[in-house]
Backbone:
């Protein structure tokens, strides 16, 4: 591997040294601008209002209302992440490999950039103005097709509605994040596969998906965490009815009614732990499928 | 005897004269010291809330002091946290003064975050709305009201019980989430007060029951009500503080036409309090700001924003309120029945409403 | 052959419908400011405000600086993790996900405690210092997106071979990074850059509490408690941000080494 004239051990030492030096800026940065500022949160989770050490906040996390909150948040996050990964993938695929006009791809990329960060309040409002009871699409469907979606059982202020709204930023995020991987999927491989007699399905199963699987898994994790931590959209759309964990957190840390920041910090700590666990699950899944890929 | 009496009178007169001179002197000193500091940092003061836009502009014009406005979107908890986080900071990120909900005053005092100051008009502030030692003091109040979009709602409701009528399907919303926002919790409390016929102790529970029924009938919309959602049609009736509703009504300027109604029963007043941060980088500017807010000029500024200033009764008694301003407000009779919940009553109601909302009202939506 | 050409069009079409209709609904509402007729009144009010240009320009500059710092931080790290330090990957990925779940307001209060005027590193003591703090805050906020995009891009190229080839030709590390790796992960960096730009333009909490004249606090000032102006503002912000991204895209496609 090494082409230098140094003895192997010295060369190895030098390589390892440089690698660690190389990641030092990142470690230092996250330490000083992410971990330490948030340390207050971790310490506060174990304190009571007077600053004394207590496990009461952690124990309180076991309250049925809070557990239900976590479960609900996990469900919404998983649903919007799964749908986002699938639909975003299909959209990116259509645009990158679908031989559409050349202007489509940069348009989609730049649009996705903006849409993925569309703030919660205007987004919720946009969906209320579209699919709410007095929304544009609702009205059009009623006047043109005499079809009342609300009478048919649809309700924007529901799990489905919230997921649908979340997709507005999940799908663009997926598009942006999977594009580099789809770019790497060379057209020649498709052609080579079909010359060797593979069907479309076989191409996907044995060539494309194994290559795309790790980035897709990573994207799912990102979308999941993204939805998990989202607050503004949920609050603006279904704030008083959908008890997501971020709303509970918001109530304790920022709200102007209840004010138990220590419980809020414990809730946040719980969220961090869940993120860590899902990260671990992703690592495990990725390593298992690594066998399949190689 | 006569000389003694004369001596007494002269000495009393001298004392009074020196006292008022001292007051005038100290006010001048304060203005000079504040001007030397040059800046005031405020937090959580949206320009449309209680006419703060004009109040701040008036302060700037009168004293030539810069006003540095932080995060107008902050809630009471954020303001407290901002003081704590800026303890060693004398930069422009540290708030000098805060304007928080009633219950946050004593809490902040207990944490040692405030410094006491008694404005020159201290005595005209009702005792129930201030801290005896001067750490926090009520600034304005409003009562819970209905804001109605007249384009979409034909009959304007007059009282809480009216809201249960079938014609208000999918119309009624709160102005926040009852788990987090004081405005929403007080809305539930007011409904409960009406249902409990004035029994404050039962108001929390009765409020929850009322909203449970409202939700079951399909009249309740679980969206945060704002002027945008009122105009767009999702929340044609919003339960909010009267000053918010009135200012939204003005901003909408008839598009759509909106009416603000104070319910016949269940009238709940909400008091906010002012305080100076113990770590204020500009303490003199902060004190001058307080003097300004509690002067007639400042109090009337809030009244223009539809908030009832805490010295309202005093000002009314002395005929200081212009008639045209009074005419723009809802009739004074509606405010006479207002209940000013004590700290304990508020805390008890919050406890019940915020914690049990999800279970009792069950507005948790299905898949 | 024909069928497989229609399907991508259908996919694109459905996607376009889903994304454009809510925007159209918002636009329709924003035009309703004048009763009984459609007009641009809400837009005129927004544009008349002098703060619009100043705050947008400020945020745009901060965004570009954030992108530069972010790329400088993330690309070498992702590269080293993939090539040399695979065991560090779980740690790094976990760290990059944290900004998504830790509330921004907790972090900014942490900054105020750690970097205020009486601490060792008094960043908040000066305007430029606070700007720097804000940039670091935004780099941190955009970390999840930048890292994931760059990491995905790095996977698709064979960095091992590329590095060895460059090394055997005598390249130094900086040269490898700048002239071999970076051009090849251009697409990933661009995705990350778009996301970062959008984050910085719209961010409100940190800019507001650190007292910087950014676009987010400006939008809040205009839009709070109003009905029609926020809708107009949302459309305007969307359009202007989209245009800026188009500019970034243009600059990137003009740079040497790009194929498209």
Residues:
């Amino acid at each position: 591997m090494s082409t230098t004239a140094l003895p192997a051990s010295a060369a190895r030492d030098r390589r390892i040294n440089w690698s660690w030096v190389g990641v030092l800026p990142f470690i230092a940065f996250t330490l000083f601008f992410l971990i330490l500022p948030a340390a207050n949160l971790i310490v506060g989770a174990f304190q009571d209002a007077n600053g004394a050490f207590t496990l009461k906040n952690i124990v309180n996390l076991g309250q049925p209302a809070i557990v239900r909150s976590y479960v609900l948040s996990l469900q919404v996050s998983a649903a919007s992440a799964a749908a986002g990964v699938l639909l975003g993938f299909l959209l990116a695929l259509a645009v990158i490999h679908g031989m559409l006009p050349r202007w489509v791809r940069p348009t989609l990329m730049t649009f996705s950039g903006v849409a993925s960060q569309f703030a919660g309040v205007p987004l919720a409002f946009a969906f209320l103005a579209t699919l709410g009871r007095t929304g544009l699409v609702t009205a059009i469907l009623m006047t043109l097709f005499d079809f009342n979606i609300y009478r048919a059982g649809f309700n924007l202020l529901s799990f489905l509605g919230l997921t649908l709204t979340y997709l507005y930023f999940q799908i663009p995020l997926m598009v942006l994040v999977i594009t580099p991987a789809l770019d790497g999927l060379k057209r020649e491989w498709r052609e080579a596969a079909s010359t060797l007699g593979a069907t479309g399905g076989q191409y996907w199963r044995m060539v494309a998906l194994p290559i795309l699987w790790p980035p897709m898994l990573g994207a799912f994790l990102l979308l999941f965490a993204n939805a998990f931590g989202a607050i503004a959209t949920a609050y603006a759309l279904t704030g008083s009815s959908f008890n997501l964990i971020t709303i509970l957190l918001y109530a304790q840390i920022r709200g102007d009614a209840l004010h138990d920041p220590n419980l809020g910090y414990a809730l946040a700590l719980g969220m961090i732990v869940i993120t860590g666990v899902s990260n671990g699950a992703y690592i495990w899944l990725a390593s298992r499928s690594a066998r399949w890929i190689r | 005897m006569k000389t003694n009496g004369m001596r007494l009178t002269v000495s009393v007169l001298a004392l009074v004269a020196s006292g008022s001179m001292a007051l005038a002197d100290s006010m001048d000193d304060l203005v000079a010291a504040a001007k030397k500091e040059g800046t005031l940092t405020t937090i959580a003061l949206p320009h449309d809330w209680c006419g703060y836009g004009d109040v701040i502009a008036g302060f700037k014009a009168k004293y030539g002091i810069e006003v540095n406005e932080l995060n107008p979107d902050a809630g009471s908890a954020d303001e407290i946290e901002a003081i704590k986080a800026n303890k060693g900071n004398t930069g422009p990120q540290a708030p000098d003064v805060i304007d928080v909900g009633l219950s946050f005053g004593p809490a902040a005092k207990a944490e040692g975050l405030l410094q006491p100051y008694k404005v020159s008009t201290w005595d005209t502030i009702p005792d129930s709305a201030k801290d005896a030692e001067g750490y926090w003091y009520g600034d304005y109040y409003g009562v819970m009201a209905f804001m109605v979009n007249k384009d979409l709602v034909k009959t304007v409701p007059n009282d809480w019980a009216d809201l249960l009528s079938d014609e208000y399907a999918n119309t009624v919303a709160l102005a926040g989430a009852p788990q987090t926002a004081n405005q929403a919790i007080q809305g539930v409390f007011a409904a409960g007060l009406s249902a409990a016929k004035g029994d404050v102790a039962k108001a929390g529970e009765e409020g929850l029951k009322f909203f449970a029924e409202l939700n079951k009938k399909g009249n309740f919309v679980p969206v945060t009500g704002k002027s945008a959602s009122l105009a767009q049609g999702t929340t044609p009736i919003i339960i909010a503080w009267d000053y918010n509703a009135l200012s939204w009504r003005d901003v909408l300027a008839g598009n759509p036409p909106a009416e603000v109604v104070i319910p016949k029963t269940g009238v709940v007043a909400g008091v906010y309090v002012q305080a100076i941060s113990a770590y204020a980088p500009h303490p003199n500017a902060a004190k001058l700001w307080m003097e300004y807010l509690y002067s007639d000029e400042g109090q009337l500024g809030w009244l223009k924003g539809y908030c009832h200033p805490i010295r309202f009764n005093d000002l009314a008694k002395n005929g200081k309120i212009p008639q045209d301003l009074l005419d723009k407000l809802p009739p004074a009779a509606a405010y006479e029945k207002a209940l000013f919940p004590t700290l304990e009553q508020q805390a008890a109601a919050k406890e019940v409403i915020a914690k049990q909302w999800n279970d009792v009202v069950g507005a948790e939506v299905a898949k | 052959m024909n069928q497989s050409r229609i399907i991508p069009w259908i996919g694109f079409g459905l996607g376009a419908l889903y994304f454009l209709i809510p925007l159209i609904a918002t636009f329709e509402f924003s035009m309703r400011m004048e009763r009984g007729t459609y007009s641009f009144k809400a837009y005129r009010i927004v544009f008349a405000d002098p703060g619009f240009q100043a705050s947008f320009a400020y945020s745009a500059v901060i965004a570009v600086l954030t992108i530069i710092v972010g790329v400088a931080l993330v690309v070498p790290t992702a590269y080293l993790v993939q090539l040399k330090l695979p065991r560090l990957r779980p740690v790094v990925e976990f760290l990059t996900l944290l900004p998504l779940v830790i509330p921004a307001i907790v972090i900014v209060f942490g900054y105020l405690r750690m970097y205020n005027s009486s601490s060792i590193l008094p960043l908040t003591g000066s305007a430029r210092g606070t700007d720097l703090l804000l940039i670091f805050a935004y780099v941190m906020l955009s970390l999840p997106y930048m890292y994931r995009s760059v990491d995905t891009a790095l996977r698709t190229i064979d960095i091992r071979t590329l590095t060895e080839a460059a090394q055997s030709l005598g390249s130094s590390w900086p040269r490898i990074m700048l002239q071999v790796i970076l051009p090849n992960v251009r697409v990933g960096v661009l995705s990350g850059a778009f996301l970062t730009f959008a984050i910085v333009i719209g961010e409100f909490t940190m800019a507001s509490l650190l007292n910087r004249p950014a676009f987010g606090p400006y939008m809040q000032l205009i839009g709070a408690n109003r009905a029609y102006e926020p809708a107009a503002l949302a459309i305007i912000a969307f359009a202007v941000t989209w245009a800026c991204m188009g500019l970034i895209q243009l600059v990137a496609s003009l740079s040497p080494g790009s194929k498209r």
Chain C touches chain B through 33 residues (CB under 8 Å). The domain at 50-253 of chain C is CATH 1.10.3720.10 (MetI-like fold). The radius of gyration of chain C is 22 Å.
